[in-house]
Design brief:
Helices cover 33% and strands 26% of the residues. The chain has 412 residues and is of the alpha+beta class. A hairpin with a 2-residue loop joins strand 9 (141-146) and strand 10. The radius of gyration is 25 Å and the shape is elongated. Bound molecules: flavin-adenine dinucleotide. Residues 9-15, 32-35, 41, 44-46, 50-51, 131-132, 159-161, 164-165, 168-169, 171, 173-174, 349-350, 377-379, 388-391, 394 line the site of flavin-adenine dinucleotide (FAD). The site of flavin-adenine dinucleotide has 39 residues, from helix 1, helix 2, helix 6 and helix 14.
Length: 412
C-alpha cells in the first residue's frame, strides 16, 4: 500500500483550511469526509451568513479545562490574520455588530464553494462518504481503517469536530479514536444550546420574547449571568442569553441533573427604582384589576405568572401598598425557572470538552503522546462564545498545524 504523506480527517472548517495551507506548501494532501458534502456546519453557520471570526478574539471568549493552552494557541494570531487568510482565497471580510466578522457576500454557502474550488485547484484528494473507523500506528506510519478501505499515512490530522449537531456531521468518532490512541478525553457536553423546563407555565408563555438578565446560581453562589434576548418556547427557553449561559448550565446538569435559572425581566431597573416607578401609578381609589394595571409595564402573557409568584394579596390597584408592590417587583427581578435538561447535542452549536489540551503542543498542535498525530478545531477541549470565536479557533489551530507540517520533509 502506498504511504500518503498526510491524511486529514474531516472536511469541515479546520480540515479544509489546513488542507489548503499544507497543499500550498507543495505537499500532497488526502482529505477524508464521512458525509457526501463538505463543511455542512460552515454552510449552516451564522444563520446562513457565516460569522467567520471576531475582531477581538481574546482569551476570555474561549473555554477549556486548561485556559493557558488557549492563550498559547491564540498568541500571535489576530483577527487580521483571519482577514488575510480569507483574502488569500478571494473572500473579502466585513465587520458587523459586536466585532463579528462576515464574508462580504453574507453567504456561508459561497465560502464553502470557494474553499472547495481552492481544494480542487491544489489537487487535494478529497474522499467523500469515507468514515474513519479506527487508527493504529505501525512502525512510523498510521494505518487508517475507513469505510472505503485502508489507508497508510505518515502524518495524521484529526479535524473531526465535535458531537454537536449530528444532523450536520457532529460525531463522537474523532474523540473515540483519539482515546484509542492514548489521549485523555474531557467529557463532551452540549454548549450554545436551548434549555428544557418541566414548569407548566412555560408553555403558556410560548412565543414571548423579552430582553432579560439571566442568572445561574449553585448552592446560593452566582455561577454566571448573561443579558440578552430570551424566548419562551413549548419545551423551555431559548434566545441569545440562554445560548450564552447554556455552557455553565449543562455543566451543572451533568453534576446535579437539575438546576434553576433566575430571570430578571426588568434588567434596566434596580428594585428601588422600579418600586418608585410603580408607586407613581398606584391610585388608592382605583378599582383597576392589577393584571390590567401591570400591562402598562410588562408583557401581558407574563403577568399571571408574576402575580402568582409574588403571592400578592392585592386584586385591584386600591389594595396595593408599598409592601405588595415590593413583592411584585421582587418576582419581576427573580422569576425562577427550573431546568430539567438541555436540548442535547442535536440542538447544540458546539460541544465543550474534547481531547485534553495538556496532551497537545499549543504551538504545533501535535500530540504529545503520538508522534505525527495532530489535532485542529473543535475535537480539542476548547469551545468559544457566540460571535465567531469557534471559527477563529478552528482557523488558528489549522494554521498552526499547517505551519508545522509545512516544515516536515513531506514534499512530492
Ligand atoms: C448551526 C451552527 C451554526 C454555527 N455558526 C457559527 C458561527 O456563525 N460562527 C462560529 O464561529 N461558529 C459557528 N458554529 C460552530 C462552528 O461551525 C464549529 O465550531 C466549527 O465548524 C468547528 O470546526 P471543525 O473543523 O472542528 O469541525 P467541523 O466543521 O464540524 O468539521 C468536522 C468534519 O469532520 C467530519 N467527520 C467527523 N467524524 C468523521 C470521521 N470519523 N470520518 C470522516 N469524517 C468525519 C464531519 O462530517 C465534518 O464535516 C456553528 C455551528 C452550528 C452547528
Amino acid at each position: 500500500m502506498k504511504i500518503k504523506p498526510i491524511t486529514i480527517v474531516g472536511a469541515g472548517a479546520s480540515g479544509l483550511i489546513s488542507s489548503i495551507l499544507i497543499a500550498r506548501e507543495g505537499i500532497a494532501v488526502t482529505l477524508l469526509e464521512q458525509n457526501s458534502k463538505a463543511a455542512k456546519k460552515i454552510t449552516a453557520s451564522g444563520n446562513g451568513r457565516c460569522n467567520i471570526g471576531n475582531t477581538h478574539p481574546t482569551v476570555e471568549h474561549f473555554h477549556s479545562d486548561n485556559i493557558s493552552f488557549i492563550d498559547s494557541v491564540l498568541d500571535g494570531y489576530s483577527s487580521r490574520d483571519i482577514v488575510d487568510l480569507f483574502s488569500s482565497l478571494g473572500i473579502e471580510i466585513i465587520e458587523g455588530s459586536d466585532g463579528k466578522l462576515f464574508p462580504m457576500s453574507l453567504q456561508a454557502s459561497s465560502v464553502v464553494e470557494i474553499l472547495l474550488y481552492e481544494v480542487s485547484t491544489l489537487d487535494i484528494e478529497i474522499v467523500y462518504d469515507s468514515t474513519l473507523l479506527s487508527v493504529s500506528k505501525q512502525g512510523g506510519e498510521f494505518l487508517l481503517d475507513t469505510t472505503q478501505g485502508d489507508i497508510s499515512t505518515k502524518v495524521l490530522l484529526l479535524a473531526t469536530g465535535s458531537m454537536a449537531s449530528p444532523q450536520l456531521g457532529g460525531s463522537s468518532r474523532g474523540v473515540e479514536i483519539a482515546s484509542s490512541l492514548g489521549h485523555t478525553i474531557v467529557p463532551p457536553l452540549p454548549s450554545l444550546v436551548q434549555l428544557c423546563s418541566d414548569e407548566r407555565w412555560v408553555s403558556q408563555v410560548s412565543g414571548v420574547k423579552i430582553d432579560a438578565l439571566v442568572k445561574l446560581y449553585a448552592n446560593s453562589e452566582l455561577i454566571s449571568q448573561k443579558r440578552g434576548d430570551i424566548l419562551f418556547t413549548n419545551y423551555g427557553i431559548s434566545g441569545l442569553a440562554i445560548l450564552d449561559i447554556s455552557r455553565d448550565v449543562t455543566r451543572e446538569l451533568a453534576t446535579y441533573s437539575y438546576c434553576e435559572l433566575t430571570i430578571d425581566i426588568i434588567p434596566d431597573y434596580t428594585k428601588e427604582r422600579f418600586v418608585t416607578l410603580l408607586l407613581k401609578y398606584v391610585d388608592n381609589r382605583s378599582q383597576k384589576p392589577i393584571d390590567i394595571w401591570l400591562m402598562g409595564f410588562i408583557h401581558k402573557k407574563l403577568i399571571p405568572i408574576i402575580i402568582k409568584e409574588s403571592k400578592t394579596k392585592a386584586k385591584i390597584v386600591a389594595q396595593l401598598n408599598k409592601k405588595e408592590v415590593m413583592k411584585i417587583v421582587y418576582s419581576l427581578k427573580n422569576l425562577k425557572l427550573s431546568i430539567s435538561e438541555s436540548r442535547g447535542f442535536k440542538g447544540a452549536e458546539v460541544a465543550s470538552g474534547g481531547v485534553d489540551t495538556n496532551e497537545i503542543d499549543p504551538i504545533t498542535m501535535e500530540s504529545k503522546i503520538v508522534k505525527d498525530l495532530y489535532f485542529a478545531g473543535e475535537i480539542i477541549d476548547v469551545d468559544g462564545d457566540r460571535g465567531g470565536y469557534n471559527f477563529h479557533f478552528a482557523w488558528v489551530s489549522a494554521m498552526r498545524v499547517a505551519h508545522q507540517v509545512g516544515s516536515i520533509p513531506l514534499r512530492r
